[in-house]
């Protein structure tokens, strides 16, 4: 090794152990591997005393003589300046100089993150490269899993939304209405329930076709949504039957005004392909406060009876359930 120049030695070490230090007999750093230099790009290592730049933590050594005596044995070091990255090393004599080969040990993942290192910063045979491949594979797998979970969650939300939505009108369906009623009764919320049936709708279907009927249903649904508040519920529960759940309302005069507005708007002609579709509406209304213990089934049955009372009265009107 006496015939090997320091330049040749450095080139060899840069490839085989890119985290090395070359020390002269006075403990001065005369060479450093490219990866080690990357850890301190703004602070010179070459030309500095080893014990000035590094602290020997285990065993705790403070003299060069004690350091030279540790040849071939494991050393624990750390930088004296921040970040005080922990390192492991082995020191060997190589002709007139000493070579201290370093590694990160168990702190490798933190160090790779802190210093933005890649597999190019390590020797080709270093097991760290295998670890980096595993980390990349794990990251890729986790990202793929995250995206899959997002798609599954999106599909679940869409399926749940579809299960509670009437596809033609975009309103809630009977299943969703049952859920809302059960929840409101469970928390003791005061509410009114309106059962709405479109008068003369069958006539539209029979004379103008189902496409016209669908158009009328969509228009009626829009009117009902516009006439209630955001927190109220509008559900399509049958072909031309709807249920409105109005939270916090127990005043019959208020409900009568809402019913009158609905009937008035629903009676306005609905244009379709150059013709006019004409319908009206009959309503049956019940209030949760009229029951000692409200139940969805009973309220719906009573609202249905009130609805048919409106039909018998000549349609285009509303009726409250009477015990």
UniProtKB/TrEMBL annotation:
InterPro entries found in the cross-reference section: DGC-Regulatory_Protein, GGDEF_dom, HNOB_dom_associated_sf, Nucleotide_cyclase, Rev_trsase/Diguanyl_cyclase
Protein name as it appears in the record: Diguanylate cyclase
Chain ranges of the GGDEF domain: 189-323
PANTHER family given in the database record: DIGUANYLATE CYCLASE DGCT-RELATED (PTHR46663), GGDEF DOMAIN-CONTAINING PROTEIN (PTHR46663:SF2)
Top-rank taxon, per record: Bacteria
Organism of origin: Thalassobius vesicularis
């Amino acid at each position: 090794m006496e015939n090997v120049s320091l330049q040749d030695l450095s080139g060899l070490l840069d490839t085989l152990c890119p985290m090395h230090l070359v020390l002269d007999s006075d403990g001065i750093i005369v060479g450093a591997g490219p990866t080690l230099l990357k850890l301190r790009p703004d602070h010179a290592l070459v030309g500095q005393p080893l014990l000035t730049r590094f602290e020997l933590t285990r065993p705790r050594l403070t003299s060069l003589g004690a350091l030279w005596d540790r040849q071939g044995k494991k050393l624990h070091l750390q930088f004296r300046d921040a970040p005080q990255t922990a390192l492991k090393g082995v020191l060997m004599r190589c002709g007139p100089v000493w070579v201290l080969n370093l590694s990160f040990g168990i702190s490798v993942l933190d160090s790779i993150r802190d210093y933005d290192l890649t597999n190019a910063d390590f020797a080709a045979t270093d097991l760290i490269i295998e670890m980096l491949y595993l980390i990349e594979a794990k990251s890729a797998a986790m990202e793929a899993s995250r995206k899959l979970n997002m798609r599954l969650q999106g599909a679940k939300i869409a399926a749940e939304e579809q299960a509670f939505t009437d596809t033609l009108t975009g309103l809630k369906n009977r299943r969703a209405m049952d859920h809302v009623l059960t929840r409101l009764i469970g928390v003791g919320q005061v509410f009114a329930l309106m059962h709405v049936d479109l008068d003369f709708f069958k006539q539209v279907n029979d004379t103008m076709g189902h496409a016209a009927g669908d158009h009328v249903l969509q228009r009626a649904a829009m009117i009902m949504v516009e006439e209630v508040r955001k927190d109220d519920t509008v559900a399509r529960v049958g072909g031309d039957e709807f249920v409105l759940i109005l939270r916090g309302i127990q005043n019959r005069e208020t409900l009568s005004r809402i019913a009158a507005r609905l009937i008035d708007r629903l009676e306005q002609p609905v244009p379709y392909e150059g013709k006019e579709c004409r319908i009206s509406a009959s309503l049956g209304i019940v209030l949760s406060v009229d029951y000692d213990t409200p139940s969805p089934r009973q309220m719906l049955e009573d609202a249905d009876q009130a609805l048919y009372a409106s039909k018998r009265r000549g349609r285009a009107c509303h009726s409250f359930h009477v015990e």
